[in-house]
Amino acid sequence: MRPLPMPAKLAAAVATVAVLSTPALARPYDPSTLAPERSVDGTRTGRALVRPRPLAPGPLFLRSSLECKVGPPRTSHVNVNLDCDAARLPNNETHIVVDPEDPEHIVVTAHDYDSNGHQFYVTFDAGEHWRTGEMASLGPNRIASDPVTAIDPVTGNVMHSELNYLFTSDGLADGHVVVSVSTDGGLHWRKPRIVAEGKGGDDDRRQVFNDKEWIATDTFPGSPHYGRTYLVWAEFRSRYGNYRRSPIVESHSDDGGFSWSKPQVISGSNPLCKWQLTGSRGKCDEAEAPTIAVQPDGDVFVAFLSPQNKSSWEPEERFDDTYFVVSSTNGGKSWSDPVVAATLEDGQRDFPKNVQHRRTLTGYQLRIPAFGNIAASPIDGQLYLVFTDNSNGKHDVDKPRTKTDVFVTSSADGVAWSAASPVIDRASDQWFPFVDVDPVTGDIGVIFHDRRLSNRDLYDTRLAEGTPGSFSYARLNTRASNPVRSAHFRAGTRGCGRCATFHGDYIGLDYGADGAANAVWTDMRRRVEFAWGSGRNENVFFRRIG
Fold this sequence. Notes:
Low-confidence stretches: 1-64
Shape: globular
Distance between the termini: 38 Å
């Protein structure tokens, strides 16, 4: 897609904040008006058992914490609602990481709209019991976004990365990339430290706003960089609110997240990056959504999207994205120039637009990003990349209609990539793919949302397992999600007034060393009631298979 001017791009990204201050776009939030929740069959909701003692003053900060019991344990059919504090405000945009040294130690993180920060959920027994609470804050009046977490097997530290910014009456300001560290498995978190400092507001002469960071650790003992943690993000630059460029930037840590190398631009140059707003020809510096994969030998790969490859644009179409990949063979000291992994059908006239002028699906208002992620096999290093596009829908027209698919492509060396193939062949929409590799079998798993054929208002969450072109499928959820009857983020548009415009930008999957698949997703099954009405909430759901 075309890089949006900074204020428009970022205002859309955090429209959640404004909407939550006035639920249903009608009445102010008032906790005294909340009616009892309705229970839903098929879900196990955690219940509070113990509120821990207050922490002594010091560098650790824990605003609130609840110990929750969910179960029965280790049963593959159970959906667990991790939001066990029973809040009626939503949580979404889920990420999950399994301890490489202990497959029963799992950390989930997500947006928390009670605090406008992030929520953590930790289990040490494969999901039988969970401890949850709010993450440490960088400071007052700051908002967190884009939760991603990694675990360092050398120090045992859990590292949580996020975008952290100010939301002011004039727009957004000081978009930092920060990392919080936990030294006790994710139960208590130190105050975030700034890795990349954002500067300026939306209307300032110069603004640097860092966005869509990702974090991953080299967990392979045979690697020369074992225990190194890589952090990447897009550095959006603007002048007086006008977007100029957004190169991909990298930093790394060798001490479990306490100190970081000097950030460096890694998105490089490719002759295909012909379209330029302000940069020199061939510079791939209008990019976004980087993700990371590390091979067992320590080679590291970063995939990112850019619309600068004009050769992939159809006639009378503009800004179709290309997935580029860069690599480093020396632990991030230097990086290759980008190579093409896939071209997407996601240009200006390929998707319908919602009320916030973001890509959506026909009959929905949810914003639907095209990006997925890159992953490497821990067995042989084979790389896999997933994404969403509308190549099988009605595209390149003034009124597009969606039949979106999630696609996968693969590569042994990160240079030559296979033709992308759909993960599933269905006549409905699929989106939010996330890929990981089973370390026991070498098969890949892809989690994604899947719109129902029988009732297109509803969606399921599925897991595909196998190899490209030969997958088996499991529906993860026990009840469908309903984003057109939402309690929050309502579009307020004719014909879809209660439709949600936002349910995060991604969901998560991680295989443990035992081969079990651990999945988290934004679920919209639970109906909650307020004095002014009712709707489906957004909650963090978990399921373990294997």
